[in-house]
Design goal:
The structure is a single chain. The chain is α/β, with parallel strands linked by helices. Helix content is 51%, strand content 18%. It has 5 helices and 4 strands, in the order βαβααβαβα. It is globular and about 45 Å long.
């Protein structure tokens, strides 16, 4: 499973690699010369390379859904669920 971490969470790729995942960062790929300036190009890159996109960008999540690309959307609703879960288990 290949994972593409959107630029807001650059650094998660390194943490995921430490756990044995094949993870890449949009920010690092840009630094290597990949043309990933728009949501469209990021989504296409993930699709072409068989990746799951992890993003906080709601529009990117919607675009992934429309194009059938696997993704994890970490929007405010998801973060709130995590907070509530932790509070319930506190």
């Amino acid at each position: 499973m290949k994972i593409l971490i959107d630029e807001m969470d650059d650094g998660w790729d390194e943490k995921l690699k430490e756990l044995g995942y094949e993870a890449y960062s949009v920010k690092k790929l840009r630094a290597e010369g990949h043309k990933l300036r728009t949501d469209y190009s990021v989504i296409n890159y993930a699709k072409e390379n068989g990746m799951i996109l992890v993003t906080r960008d709601t529009e990117s999540g919607q675009a992934c859904e429309e194009s059938g690309l696997p993704y994890m959307l970490l929007d405010n609703d998801e973060i709130f669920k995590i907070v509530v879960n932790k509070l319930e288990n506190y």
